[in-house]
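Example record used in the benchmark description.
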Amino acid sequence: MADRKVTFLCMASFFKGTAFIEECRALGCNTLLLTNEHLKEKPWPWQAIDERFFMHDIYRQPDVTRAVSYLARTREIDRIVPLDDFDVEVAASLREHLRSPGMGDTTARFFRDKLAMRVQARDEGIPVPEFVHVLNHKQIDEFSRKVPGPWMLKPRSQAGAVGIKKIHSSEELWRRVHELGDEQSYHLLERCVAGDVFHVDSIVYDKKVLFQVASRYGTPPFNIWNEGGVFLSHTVNPRSSLNRELLSLNEKLIKAMRLVRGVTHAEFIKGHDGQLYFLELAARVGGANIDRLVEEASGFNLWREWARLEHAYCLKKPYDLPKPRNLHAGLLICLSRAEKPDLSRFSAPEVVWRHAEDHHAGLVVAGKDYDRVNELLGRYQHQLTKEILAVQPPTDKAIH
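Model output (structure tokens):
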């Protein structure tokens, strides 16, 4: 490989991962972008992309396998990189077909299939809320009698809170199950645990967690998705026992899921019973601008570090992670009534990032003083709710 550039094929069904692509160019990679036609007008960093390819639907098989195989006739593709959660399974299938290095079909299931990741976590001794596959009706009935409601009915392969329904009674449960028809087996039923929801974002190389930061959601993503409101997340006090507990469980989780290298976004809930439970795990950078939160807290960008570690592995060189700066940080995001809301009045010196376009408003607050950051987040969340917030009905599909 010393006599040619490393070639990355980046797959994107959503417009994201531009920092990854830019870092590929900075590293001297040959970068190919495969995306859907409806995204061709998005402001991709075209100057960092060597070749671009568009398809009507990059999920459609066997079309995408044939298309990438055709590209591989004249290009040596070293890495296939999915830039969104929904691209993980397609990329794994392509790696299997091309015998390309990286996560294959079986491991990808642990990061996309909510049932597979729960079974694996439970088998590895990681606490999970009680659950049952929506498959055998007798087992579902036994579960609903044994485990008190409410329950969460979850699609196995969606992302985040998309498509999740909260079920309050046995009658509602069976109505929902029958409405699913032939789609029943693509769902699971889980005990609804009341508590605080957290996420841990990590960088993994050679099966070792080199970096991880724990954060707490102000309101669980399920509530934001279904009821609206201002999305808030802030870093957990690093000196707390809760932070140590989250990081320890996250390391155990990543080992159980057999990830060799990459970035991860894991979610946990601290139940009112005091137990910390595993909820979700994704082999990607967290959505909803969580990468901005992590960057302002740590000083480095997860997308760029992901590109750097994949490049280092291709060249069989060590990957050196920058030293984090360890600030406290918080993120606020909401829908806006105005297309480009005025955020100038959010003017504290701790405000290090603003986003105001496409009917969205966003802020990141960061600093050394944990209490000061949290005080600003509370004040700004109230202000955004009162002055800027817009609410729209939830959908059962992720929005491109």
